[in-house]
Design brief:
The structure holds four protein chains of four kinds. By secondary structure, chain C is an all-alpha fold. Chain C is 75% helix and 0% strand. Chain C starts with a helix and ends with a helix. By secondary structure, chain D is mostly helical. Chain D starts with 6 loop residues before the first helix and ends in an 8-residue tail after the last helix. Classes of the chains: A mainly alpha, B mainly alpha, C mainly alpha, D mainly alpha. Chains C and D meet through helix 4 and helix 7 of C and helix 2, helix 5, helix 6 and helix 7 of D.
């Protein structure tokens, strides 16, 4: 029982690591662009959880500042990512990563 | 300033030739530039002091001050004749190419002059870094010369040539970085005075020697040579055989042996054996060829093996013989390859079968060729003789076995050279392959035109005359060439090769160097203030 | 004890929703899963005394980014046939997950000093808008200024990529 | 003004570039068609102005060091990186001007995005804490994603953008995770603080190592080190050629420059990183070169070559924990300068020679071009010689300094591998020259391509730079 209770920062870190892993798995396995984009968001959020946890551990709000920055940057990335999806959709009428093979080799 | 001007003049000529709008001027500018360079280079001979073994005509300017790389030039006995050989041959090559090169002539001459400049730079550099700069720089014009104006398989030949040479020089670069880091200087004399520990000597010798032996080329590293010589245009072949390969031998004399004497002595027997193997291999391959340009390429390989043999006897006559043979080889190979180019220009073939009885149609050409072949075969009184005898006798004294094999190789060389002469110039005249059978129906010609093989033109004759005279001059008066360089060879190579009585303690040497650096640094600081 | 119960509930929601995101065929379902995951994250932040971050998480992520994403999904109005179900990629998912668990989790668990040390005592107002704002506008003023350019770039970039005529 | 000015003026180049980006956007919005025509000129002027400013700052005595409470550091190294990035952007602008006219895709936003990317590069070059570093990286990358997909009517361009974006954000995730772990271990974000923390040796967990390793993975993706390079050939190949010039030079310069500063200054732990970096170096060089060997498109060959070139940089970086930071930064900065001149030149040349829609990027397409356009072809030959590391070009000096650095610190084996690689690379670089000059023209004769004056001037400067860079006095 000792590893389940009491809750320590390490619990949060493991949670964050697993969430990161889910995000990575999503990016690697899903060919649907939207899902890939959402998986990227999951990865960034997992990191945010780590930052907040470390902030709590160190008793220093620098981590919170970083998280706010990351939120803004994630918004910017989502914006550009969705724009790319729209541009692609105009060319192909599909949003599947598998369809874009002209550059391989 | 003489040396800088010698490098600068051809560069200037090359730039002018490349930029000048008129194709006609493209011929006169390079000729003027190279001739001026030659005349100017005579100053080197007249002002050279044979009693001084050190560098003369020195110039030093900082090039990359932060790494204390200097633009420093100098000439001593080792490089004197090779520079003069280069400046002597270039105008002749330019003159000899007038008829042969018609397409993109401006680029051709620019490359030729650029090559001359980089060769002179390589020979005159007394800073190791500068030497490497020029050494690698030679590749670029040579790459273009073979690749653009060469024969049908030129691309393969030029890539092979560049890659072989590069492979060697890159390893040399690593060794060079190592050596100069150890000595903490790029200055030739500093490295020269330093004695390296034995294991360092071994590896660095191998790395340096590989670069130079590929260039010479020594027996197993020669695969680039037949292709490059055969495919290059006549002028390019002359530069390759008469000048570029000499730089390999020069590198051995200048860097490899004096820097790493211990390793040089340890490897000398192996290299002598390989040199002799090259002599025999070249000779045997030459007898098998039906293409006479390829034949001559192999004979050149064979003769370069002899030069390497002479150098690695480590005796004064052997070294002198090597240097004289370099000059002689440069002159007669230049002659032979120019003449081959002229034959090709007339018939469009390098096959011995395509010719026959050429002496009747072109007596002057035949006479010049005979003269050069006699030199090459080492007939007494001609350019090849003195060097050969000196090398063979001193090699015999050092180690009899390879010398005897080399003599056998030389007998063979007389045979294939005269076989070539006989097939091409004697016998019954053969028709020009361009005008035979199928061609004749569509393009009927008179009988005279079929056998047409015009004699030397004025510019061709002018290009060959100095070579003919030089071949004789070297044969008749070898001391003219040997005396000025004796002192340098003796002090810079042989002295260094004698086993050192007391090897200086390595740590002490490092300390001494560091002290020297400190003491150098301090006065400079004062000056700044 | 309360913290532990909350933590486990939230962790279960977070991971469950995360898995939902990467396994659903319909992107709308994924998006809704993501919203739920973000909400759980916000609650976790609150548990870690990061009040401002928790609020921003809800406002910006759930309120902004997700709306944008759902909007685009609706805009493109994809035909269900276009959305291929996940093929035999379960293996990739499992391996990536296992990798993350096997490598990252234990490394942090076992080796992190944070795992065994009690967290630092908190000052009053830790993680509220004053503390964070104070930090952001003193030590991190320069990157904050640059952040405005990031947003500008995103706007211009989206415009360039998505407008009809070049 | 002989000594260094205060904070705001020390960052003047950055302010100029940011102001320029805003001005270009306003110009496009207010003047429309007229503004479009003027935008390349305006962008060029701004970049030249900023470059002049950088040169002026370089010539001043007494660098201010860190500013904005340690967020940025202005020293000779960061100023030099700024100069190189500006050079890259300036060349890109010149190459783009005629390229975009040909593709009928001129907009003011394009140049504004270039300037925004440059401000990201500056931020990255100046960064002295992880947050600034990350923001700079993202600013640069976002602009780069958009630029890669700028010709969105072309499938290859949009695809390049997608691939670049996906892997870029993916890499950012790892990078950020690495930063989080480092922050967790040390509680600080500033590089000097981190170094201080590490030097005290108080940390007892591999959290630092794990963080730094994740950071390495993230940066490895960004600068395309093998095995994280998969995206690079596709992106450089698919992006419009002038953009590829910017992506492979300016973006890489900033990322590598910051990478170097990070590992030379923040993680100055003796010996720790040598094996990891050496393995990355060997893999990157070897696989990059092998990839380039088999290509039939010059543009794609250049893409692989830029991967291989990153490997040579890694050879120098392998000495990061052994050599003094100054020596390392100097060697890296010089190589980046040389690399920028030759690679940007080569991609720019492709932009010129490939024709409308970039249809002619194969080796075969350049048969005999050397005879039709001798001077333009000669420039390409010069870039190829430089990339192959032949003397006396900048490429040779760059490699020389890097290899010397590694060799001086005992990495003989690594240098031998590097030398072997540079030998292999000579083959495919020279192949370009062979096609330009040594292959007979087959089929129909095509007329020589016209080259506008601005292009010619840019190539001439590039060529002269390649020839002279090794002999010029370097800022530090």
């Amino acid at each position: 029982m000792e590893i389940f209770y009491p809750i320590t920062p390490a619990h949060y870190l493991v949670l964050s690591a697993v969430l990161f892993g889910i995000g990575v798995a999503g990016v690697l396995s899903r060919k649907n662009l939207f899902v890939a984009l959402m998986s990227l968001e999951l990865m960034l959020n997992a990191v945010n959880l780590s930052f907040v946890t470390f902030s709590r551990v160190n008793g220093d709000v620098t981590g919170h500042v970083v998280v706010l920055f990351v939120v803004a940057i994630a918004a910017a990335e989502a914006c550009v990512g969705l724009a790319i999806v729209i541009a692609l959709y105009r060319l192909k009428e599909k949003v599947d990563l598998d369809l874009f093979k002209s550059l391989q080799g | 300033m003489i040396l800088s001007i010698l490098i600068g003049l051809p560069v200037l000529g090359a730039v002018l030739a490349a930029f000048f709008p008129q194709e006609r001027a493209a011929k006169t500018i390079p000729l003027l530039a190279s001739a001026t360079t030659f005349i100017f280079s005579l100053l080197l001979y007249t002002r050279f002091d044979p009693a001084n073994a050190g560098f003369q005509f020195q110039e030093i300017y900082p090039l990359v001050p932060r790494f204390s790389i200097n633009y420093s030039l100098g000439v001593d006995g080792l490089s004197l004749w090779l520079i003069l050989l280069t400046t002597f041959l270039t105008p002749l090559v330019v003159l000899g190419s007038f008829g042969a090169v018609t397409q993109n002539a401006r680029g051709y001459y620019a490359c030729l002059l650029f090559l001359e400049a980089s060769v002179i730079g390589t020979l005159a550099a007394t800073d190791l870094f500068l030497f490497y700069l020029f050494w690698e720089l030679m590749l670029i014009p040579a790459f273009f010369l073979i690749g653009v104006w060469g024969g049908p398989h030129r691309v393969k030949a030029t890539i092979k040539f560049v890659l072989f040479t590069m492979a060697g020089s890159l390893l040399m670069l690593v060794a060079l970085i190592y050596v100069t880091h150890e000595v903490r200087s790029f200055d030739y004399t500093k490295v020269f005075d330093y004695s390296f520990p034995q294991d360092v000597q071994f590896w660095c010798f191998l790395a340096f020697a590989l670069a130079f032996l590929i260039k010479v080329p020594l027996f197993p590293f020669h695969a680039w040579l037949p292709d490059a010589y055969t495919e290059a245009p006549a002028g390019g072949t002359v530069m390759l055989s008469a000048v570029l390969v000499k730089l390999g031998a020069y590198g051995l004399l200048r860097f490899c042996i004096p820097f790493f004497p211990y390793a040089a002595r340890a490897f000398s027997h192996w290299i002598m054996l390989l040199a002799v193997a090259g002599v025999v291999h070249g000779a045997l391959m030459a007898t098998l060829q039906t293409d006479f340009k390829r034949l001559t390429a192999y004979s050149s390989l064979s003769h370069m093996g002899l030069i390497t043999l002479g150098i690695f006897t480590f005796s004064l006559p052997g070294l002198q013989g090597g240097v004289v043979q370099m000059i002689g080889h440069g002159v007669y190979m230049a002659g032979i390859f120019l003449l081959i180019g002229m034959l090709y220009q007339r018939r469009g073939s390098h096959q011995m079968d395509a010719y026959g009885g050429a002496a009747q149609a072109a007596p002057l050409l035949a006479a010049a060729m005979l003269w050069m072949l006699l030199s090459a075969a080492g007939l007494p009184g001609f350019a090849g003789f003195v060097g050969e005898i000196l090398i063979l006798t001193s090699a015999y004294k050092t180690w009899a076995f390879p010398a005897l094999v080399a003599i056998a190789g030389f007998v063979l060389s007389a045979w294939y050279l005269f076989n070539f002469y006989g097939k091409v110039f004697l016998g019954t005249p053969k028709a020009n392959p361009d005008n035979t059978k199928t061609n004749r129906k569509t393009n009927p010609k008179k009988d005279e035109e079929i056998f047409l093989l015009p004699d030397l033109s004025l510019s061709e004759g002018l290009a060959l005359l100095p070579l003919v005279l030089a071949a004789l001059w070297i044969g008749l008066n070898p001391n003219f060439f040997m005396d000025p360089i004796e002192k340098s060879l003796d002090l810079k190579v042989i002295e260094k090769l004698k086993p050192q009585p007391v090897m200086m303690d390595f740590a002490a040497q490092q300390r001494r160097l560091q002290d020297e650096m400190e003491s150098n640094r301090q006065p400079r600081k004062k000056n700044n203030n | 004890m309360l913290e532990a119960i909350l933590f486990y509930i939230l962790a279960a929601v977070l991971l469950g929703m995360g898995l939902l995101v990467i396994t659903r065929t319909n992107p709308i379902a994924s998006a809704l899963g993501l919203v739920a995951a973000f909400a759980a994250l916000a609650a976790l932040y609150a548990l870690l005394s990061a009040s401002l971050v928790a609020i921003i998480q809800v406002l910006v992520y759930a309120g902004g980014i997700m709306v944008l994403m759902i909007f685009v999904i609706m805009l493109l109005n994809l035909h269900p046939d276009d959305l291929k179900p996940m093929k035999a990629q379960g293996l990739t998912v499992v391996s990536a997950l296992m990798g993350a668990l096997v490598v990252l989790g234990p490394v942090i668990w076992v080796l992190s000093p944070a795992g065994s040390q009690p967290p630092a005592a908190l000052t009053a107002g830790f993680g509220d808008i004053f503390a964070v704002g104070d930090k952001m506008f003193t030590g991190y003023l320069f990157p904050f200024e640059m952040l405005s350019l990031v947003l500008l770039t995103a706007i211009v970039g989206a415009l360039v990529l998505a407008k009809r005529k070049l | 003004m002989d000594t260094f000015p205060i904070e705001l003026t020390a960052l003047l180049p950055l302010w100029i570039v940011v102001g320029g980006a805003l001005a270009l956007l306003l110009l496009e919005a207010l003047l429309g068609e007229e503004g479009r025509k003027a935008s390349p000129v305006l962008a060029g002027t701004i970049l030249v102005l900023a470059l002049g400013c950088v040169f002026h700052l370089l010539s001043l005595k007494g660098m201010p060091g860190s500013l904005f409470q340690g967020a940025v550091v202005v020293d000779l190294y960061s100023l030099t990186l700024e100069g190189i990035c500006l050079l890259s952007a300036l060349l890109t602008c010149v190459f783009s001007a005629s390229y975009l006219r040909r593709e009928r895709a001129v907009t003011g936003e394009y140049y504004a995005l270039i300037l925004l990317a440059v401000s990201g590069m500056f931020t990255l070059a100046l960064a002295s804490d992880f947050l600034t570093f990350f923001v700079g990286l993202e600013l640069m990358s976002l602009a780069a994603y958009v630029l890669a997909g700028y010709l969105r009517v072309q499938e290859r361009s949009t695809e390049a953008a997608l691939k670049y974006f996906m892997l870029g954000v993916f890499a950012s995730g790892f990078l950020l995770y690495g930063i989080a772990l480092l922050y967790g271990a040390s509680g600080v974000l500033h590089f000097p603080d981190l170094r201080h923390f590490l030097e005290q040796g108080r940390y007892s967990s591999p959290l630092v190592e794990a963080g730094a390793a994740l950071l390495l993975v993230g940066l490895g993706f960004k600068v395309a080190l093998v095995p994280f390079h998969g995206w690079a050939p596709d992106v450089y190949d698919g992006a419009p050629a002038p953009v590829a010039a910017l992506l492979s030079t300016g973006v890489k310069t900033a990322a590598f420059g910051a990478f170097t500063r990070l590992f030379a200054e923040a993680f100055g732990l003796p010996g720790n990183w040598v094996p990891a970096f050496a393995v990355l170096a060997v893999l990157t060089m070897t696989l990059g070169n092998l990839g380039a060997l088999g290509q039939e498109s010059v543009k794609r060959m250049l893409a692989y070559s830029s991967v291989a070139q990153a490997g040579y940089l890694m050879v120098g970086l392998s000495a990061a924990s052994l050599a003094p930071a100054d020596d390392l930064e100097r060697a890296v900065a010089f190589y980046l300068l040389a690399y920028t001149l030759m690679t940007a030149g080569a991609f720019g040349w492709i932009a010129w020679a490939a024709g409308k829609g970039e249809t002619g990027t194969g080796f075969e397409d350049y048969r005999g071009l050397g005879l039709k356009c001798p001077w333009m072809a000669f420039m390409m030959a010069l870039f190829m010689f430089s990339l192959a590391g032949m003397t006396p070009t900048a490429g040779f000096f760059g490699k020389y300094y890097l290899f010397k650095l590694a060799l001086d610190h005992g990495l003989l084996g690594l240098v031998l591998v590097a030398v072997l690689n540079s030998f292999v690379s000579a083959y495919y670089y020279l192949r370009v020259v062979v096609f330009l000059y040594m292959k007979p023209v087959e089929g129909k004769e095509t007329a020589g391509l016209p080259a506008p004056l601005d292009l010619r001037v840019a190539f001439l400067l590039c060529g002269l730079g390649v020839l002279a860079a090794g002999f010029l006095k370097f800022p530090f």
